[in-house]
Amino acid sequence: MATATKKRPSAGVTIQPLGDRVVIRRDESEETTAGGIVLPDAAQDKPARGRVVSVGDGRLLDDGSRGEMQVKAGDRVLFSSYSGESIQLGEEEYLLMGEDNILAVIE
Length: 107
Prior knowledge:
This protein is an all-beta fold. The chain has a domain at 21-27 and 44-106: Roll (10 Kd Chaperonin, Protein Cpn10, Chain O). It has no helices and six strands.
């Protein structure tokens, strides 16, 4: 009898968001405080900043054209703490969110 196996995504998988969505890789959380205290994983806050991995084509406007995205791949951004949908691909975790959830670009 044959058994079904679950296919794991390969390391070469790319994510192309649709519309005005962006894919973000969240920055690593701080493991120590400014005073040098080491924080356990449960006490670490997930940072609300990261790097844009890929962007969609832009919001579809009433006249049928696409609006220009304000961010591009490679930008460092700040976003709302609880925004976005978490996606796990292989060992990497990404966030998929709308462009309107991004608060600022870090330069």
